[in-house]
Design brief:
Layout: H1 24-36, H2 41-53, H3 57-70, H4 75-103, H5 109-133, H6 140-150, H7 154-161, H8 171-184, H9 188-200, H10 208-224, H11 228-248
């Protein structure tokens, strides 16, 4: 879920304490164990972690689903089940993208669209479920907003993102995605307003990736509308941000 709004990688900020600890022999032992003792809670976590380490999120999803059926009130199992669902969805999308890139034709377009929609819908489902369980997990609104944007549900995305505008940690990224939504909805002036909030505010320090993405959108829009003075301002600001980001990483 990599985007200007949030870092690449896992969909959550919650780390799992259950790491993969064995190879095929341990996996087979756990598989046999869960056939005989379905109430061994830790075995579900360990076996799923092994499946994930082997690049088999579908198997992890299946075993964690069984665990959730045995322990329906276990929120840790549910969390890992959701993580496995997300991992399987992005795995499918990645595989289809790679095949499409190699084929270099339109044969995979339908499969690519289907997997992209599945990835977006999976994020929406998981994020909404987690926010319903714990409204304090506000960072999931960014993931939710981006997923709704991908599904072309722009007005809905704006509604989900707006509560983050009062949160200094996430307001800049939220403003960026709100701007993108307004741009698709045909309101260039409104979108520029939100891109400026994402990139030009002095009261809140925006993450460099967000500032850069928003400034590039502003440059394109200013050029499109022939606003020379602000176009130059955005270009010079972008150059300064890029220079600062480069210096920070060297």
């Amino acid at each position: 879920m990599s985007s200007p709004a949030h870092p690449a990688g896992d969909s959550s900020e919650k780390s799992t304490p259950h790491a993969a600890t064995g190879g095929p022999n341990r996996r087979q032992a756990l598989e046999r164990r869960l056939k005989d003792a379905r109430t061994d809670r830790e075995a579900y976590f360990e076996l799923a972690a092994i499946y994930r380490s082997e690049g088999r999120p579908m198997q992890a999803t299946k075993i964690l689903k069984q665990g959730c059926e045995v322990f329906p009130d276990d929120l840790d199992l549910l969390w890992e089940f959701e993580e496995a669902q997300l991992a399987r969805s992005i795995q499918q999308l990645t595989e289809v993208r790679e095949m499409a890139a190699k084929a270099k034709n339109a044969a995979f377009d339908q499969d690519l669209d289907r997997c992209s929609m599945d990835w977006a819908n999976c994020r929406v489902k998981v994020c909404r479920a987690r926010l319903n369980r714990d409204p304090s997990l506000q960072h999931f609104r960014l993931v939710l907003g981006e997923a709704l944007y991908d599904l072309e549900k722009h007005a809905e995305a704006i509604n989900e993102l707006e509560p983050l505008l009062a949160n200094d940690n996430h307001s800049s990224a939220a403003a960026y995605w709100i701007g993108k939504c307004h741009l698709v909805l045909g309101s260039d002036i409104e979108s520029m307003h939100w891109f400026r909030i994402a990139s030009m505010r002095r009261s809140v320090t925006s993450p460099p990736k967000v500032r850069i993405a928003a400034l590039r959108m502003l440059i394109d829009l200013a050029e499109r509308h022939g606003v020379a003075a602000t176009h130059e301002l955005y270009k010079s600001t972008l150059a300064s941000v890029l220079e600062s980001a480069h210096a920070h990483h060297t």
